[in-house]
Amino acid sequence: MTTSVKFLAVLLIINNISFGQDFTKKIDSIIKDNYQKNPNVGISVGFIKDNKEFYTSYGNLNAETQTKIDKNSVFEIASITKILTSNLIAQAVNENKIKTDDYIDNFLPKEYVLHPNLKNKIKISDLASHQSGLTDIDFGKLIELNPQQPVSSVTQETLTSLINNCTELTDYGKYRYSTIGYTLLGQILEKIYNKSYDEIIREKIIMPLKLKNTFTTDFNVKNITTSHNSEGGIQEFFKWNITAPAGLVKSCTSDMIAYLKAVLYKENKVGKAALITEKIFYKDERREMGLGLNIMTDDKNTIYSKSGDSMGQSSIICYNRNQNWGIIILLDHRKSKMRQELLNQIYDTVLK
Residue 74 in contact with residue 219, Cβ under 8 Å? Predict the structure, then answer.
């Protein structure tokens, strides 16, 4: 290697290090400033750029301990679970077990009997892009019944009644956010694999990616954060039940960065499946939707994102495949406005 080539190689390494440090300093500054203004809100942020990982976090696991939140602290990722479920659907597509344009009729458990008006109309992709038109769970009523565990009263009987008594689709083909759609996708996965959703997500995402702090049915661990509702009161983590595929996975920033790393690498099963989820399955004047993903495009960038809110925590995940970066933000309070403002600020000042 000539002296000039050696110098160029060293210069590139230095530039990459400086570039990475610049990113982390700016992101950390934004998160630190937010924490200083809101010292009661714990936060954990993970960022990946060109396969390099960066983390920052502020706050304690709970009010009774001095143990700090870190990249392995466990949060409710809530509806971010939906993109894990849609990735599993896309993996099933790649395994030729299902197609995105298949009608759901033959893939539903036998308990469901679709009304004639609904037969051969709803596609797999309709469920995953929130345009099926099916009647959804009434969360307002569920919260009134049990504000700590609102989904606890949702059972197979509840879902069977909702689907079997649905005679007309409301705004079929138009965007209408749906929990029941993703619950059904989980049940469709269970039927085609003849395994529980818990077993499927473990075998196809959690274990292959070595996600050590991602939990399903059992999340009784020491590094769990405390949830706080919108008024600041203590809120229980949602217990695992039939609605799990729509929002009940618990995880941390380091594991979600590992997931993003797999998504951004096209040569593994998760990455190949992600390419399917990124296709546009719904578009109107306000939004574009992939399978579970919000898609935002301007002249230079295409951003894929998904937010999540439990009763006591807020989260958002976002990535840019072309620029090879991704970010996850987890809050221990239900503060959807805060998490969105943080992402907007990071994007506008650092990533754009």
Answer: yes
pTM greater than 0.90: yes
Cα 279 from Cα 290, distance rounded (Å): 5
**Residues 166, 174: Cα–Cα separation, whole Å:** 17
Closest CA to 312 of 67, 102, 62: 62
CA distances from 158 to 111, 142, 183, 215 (A): 11, 12, 12, 25
Residue 301 CB partners (closer than 8 Å, separation 6+): 320, 322, 323, 352
pLDDT digits (tens, 9 = 90+) for 29-74: 999 999 999 999 999 999 999 999 999 999 999 888 889 999 999 9
Domains of the chain and CATH, by start = 26-97+196-351 (3.40.710.10)
d(CA 268, CA 86): 16
Distance CA 139, CA 145 (A): 10
